[in-house]
Design goal:
2 domains, 225 residues, Rossmann fold, single chain
């Protein structure tokens, strides 16, 4: 049984990753961490683990690598889709996956790293990249501005009540919008919606842009108040 420590501040992505890893009977998640302090504590508490952590937690990479080596653990970096893998491999980590990684590739990465190998993200063929862009673009263009705002907040891990407050509407209105969004994206729940968005670069970029604009608007409103 391979012990897994999973650390990521994005609750939705963390839940989706845990769901994927749970499909392999040889993998067992022993700790889930939402922030850097919990990650460092788990690394110390559970030596000999495979540590799957998001670069967005911004750990001191040199310190973390030394902690992993001291405990006989191996690190796999979850990088943002816009990043490169080479910098993390050069820092001594055994594997890198991106947020748009498929479930099959994620499990293969964990297996290889646990066996002492190094995992480098496989290059997708041009046709697959084009197809992904086509799907993401088509869905992005079908969503209304209000629906895209909701998608952006879903990806951030917000619940319906928080979304309603931030968009100055009611939970029932958000639920109605979600039904329309699910129809347009072909998913059945908020977790699938978040993962679908992350896995399609064009849609993920649009959601990130809208999310940034929302935060800027809220900060501006707070400053005026």
């Amino acid at each position: 049984m391979k012990k897994i420590i999973l650390a990521d501040c994005q609750a939705i992505f963390r839940a989706g990753t845990a769901k994927v890893l749970a499909t392999d009977d040889d993998l067992r998640i022993i700790a889930q961490c939402a922030d850097l302090d919990r990650l460092l504590h788990a690394v110390t508490t559970f030596p000999g683990s495979i540590v799957l952590f998001a670069a967005s937690l911004r750990p001191d990479m040199v310190q973390l690598r030394r902690m992993l080596e001291a405990g006989g653990s191996k690190g796999i970096v979850i990088a943002e889709n816009s990043e490169g893998a080479q910098v993390y491999l050069q820092q001594g980590f055994r594997g890198v996956v991106f947020r748009n990684v498929t479930g099959q590739s994620l499990i293969e990465c964990v297996r290889r790293v646990s066996n002492g190998d190094t995992w480098i993200p496989p290059q997708l063929v041009v046709a697959e990249n084009i197809e992904e862009d086509v799907v993401g673009t088509r869905v992005r263009d079908r969503l209304t501005p209000k629906e895209m705002r909701i998608v952006a907040l879903i990806v951030q891990g917000c619940k319906n009540r928080e979304i309603a407050i931030r968009l100055k509407t009611t939970e029932q209105v958000i639920k109605n919008y979600l039904r329309s969004i699910y129809d347009k994206t072909g998913v059945s729940d908020r977790l699938e919606l978040a993962l679908f968005t992350i896995h399609h670069r064009t849609l993920a970029a649009a959601a990130a842009e809208v999310g940034s604009k929302l935060e800027a608007e809220e900060q501006a409103a707070g400053a005026v108040a």
